[in-house]
Amino acid sequence: MLDFTYSNITKIVFGRGAEEHAGKEAAAWGKKVLLHYGGGHIVRTGLKDRVTASLQEAGLEIVELGGVQPNPRLSLVRQGIALAREERVDLILAVGGGSVIDSAKSIAIGVPYEGDVWDFYAGKAKARETLPVGVVLTIPAAGSESSTSAVVTNEDGWRKVGYGSVLMRPKFALMNPELTYTLPAYQTACGVADMFAHILERYFTREDHVGLGDHLCEGAMRSIIQEAPQAIAEPENYGARANIMWAGTVAHNGLLGVGRSEDWASHAIEHELSAMYDLAHGAGLAIVFPAWMKYVYRQDPERFVQFAVRVFGVEQNFHHPEQTILEGIRRLEDFFRRIGLPTTLSDANIPADRLEDMAEMATAGDTKRLGSFLPLGQSDVLGIYRLCQG
Amino acid sequence: MLDFTYSNITKIVFGRGAEEHAGKEAAAWGKKVLLHYGGGHIVRTGLKDRVTASLQEAGLEIVELGGVQPNPRLSLVRQGIALAREERVDLILAVGGGSVIDSAKSIAIGVPYEGDVWDFYAGKAKARETLPVGVVLTIPAAGSESSTSAVVTNEDGWRKVGYGSVLMRPKFALMNPELTYTLPAYQTACGVADMFAHILERYFTREDHVGLGDHLCEGAMRSIIQEAPQAIAEPENYGARANIMWAGTVAHNGLLGVGRSEDWASHAIEHELSAMYDLAHGAGLAIVFPAWMKYVYRQDPERFVQFAVRVFGVEQNFHHPEQTILEGIRRLEDFFRRIGLPTTLSDANIPADRLEDMAEMATAGDTKRLGSFLPLGQSDVLGIYRLCQG
Question: B313 and chain A: CB distance < 8 Å anywhere?
């Protein structure tokens, strides 16, 4: 087990009506709040009105900034920073999913910084201060509600880059599973693949003697496998929605990764795919992760046998471990397909004519190695994209 | 799943040499520290010197208060409060196991309170302020290093009472698995039973649709079952010690219990046993918990089948669930015995002539009900003590 430092200050308020706590929780951090959100969904569902009423009841002043798009844009972040400074807001309340939260986190670290916020993402500066961020979560997926990181897209070159700092954990996250009843099945499934992938990135470690973390990862995955089909078949099944929503947080609050090297190659490989084609991140992960597994399992076959047996209950073939391993990967593909996701490029109607380009970009012309389980160069990444063809 | 609020601010610094961070972490909370500890163990091992040097290097002034005994005493807590006020200390650093940490937490809430600290434990007051508490952990067991509670013993009547508040979470916990190499096998085993029981108290819930929590609890238990015999057989096996140490924290940092009703009857039943006889808390739990399980399983046989199958890998008898259930309980007893713990009163040389008295005291003369899985009165508790006879 590796040495580690872990802290997670995010206060979770979970359950029916959690969004009604917005006023009380926000009031602990200031008097003027920037209400940050995406499109009309939270207006149509009445969520925005309920949150606004809660904030007003607590005596808070509200400044609004909507319009966050999936893959949140740097231009809106800059606009938010200017607005927050001009209005002297004390905190930012993100109402939405991962994109809205990431946008809010980026505004929050940008406000007290004298330079341009992109400096953090370009590796030119480290955040030393932040405005507090609160969250009303509407989509269980990215885990951004209690994570240390954010991803923004710079329209200049359409570069999608992440930045992380413990400062970026939201101060509070209000999580009402009922708010996810209206999520379409496909979006629910994409969120499920995203959280599942967050666990897989931590599970496939080269670190030795990490049994507790393994067991916790396996438990979280088994729970997701059990609950996701139910959440999709019965969108208003509170228990299934609640377990999935909480799983999204547990998957990415950092606890499952302590003491382990993590991988994250599949995320990088997927990013090229969703940047190139109009594909949801979760759907891309459902395609890339099984292919990555097929490419790398020889690096540590025992861990892949353990995955098959413990996560999917595969009957172990003790004489032919490869059979067990491949059956485990097949079951993962089955799971993704069962919840309505593509697991190959052709499932997603993506042609195979740009694989070389994507492999080159993912590795910056073979100058970067991706992941730590098996560090991957350009030809490896190309091999994985080819396996994505099915 | 029940609605819940969860936050855990404790910063964990885990790994080799973690205690060397004492100065840096303490300095974030003030200039003058009360170094609180038990007996000579931390002196003999050189730990006290290393921590002192780290504090001094960070420019901190040190006031010392040793002498914490197992089942920490109210008199020493009061002495600590007087000392901390007189010396105007800014924070308390507990170096030791659960008793030292609980004593430190009690001093910390007592200092800013104008009344007597026992008021909190007697249910007459709620803590509204606290001095910050830091921890250098030496015994993985109680989980107090990141929990919200403390237990103290009032010598006036030898009442052992707990109190809890989110204010009581330590601000930081420094956890070096190497510090546990010198723990005797029996003490290691008692710690293991304690952390295992912390998970069981959360696992046996009446709440429905708590699959994620179930799986996380099961994973943590399976990991402890796997690592504990190794930690005892090879006291300097870093990986086994590290997994056990981290399991003690995970078991009791609150995360495994969110959204569930918890039980805690077995803890109350055990408290009478260790108060009446000179028995370690963990050893008492190894006796009481299997007996409690035998007494209550008919309340929710399916959950006990799940425990047997998922935690101990019992081959399920689909036609006779009781066989599966009893085999699960038998395996738990086997596990406790394998690590050197008693599982019956006679194993621990405890006579059976005070069972009625203990049942009366545990339930305050049948005026109190214990637990929530199956609320227990005096005759139930007596029935459980009888099952403890083996």
Answer: no
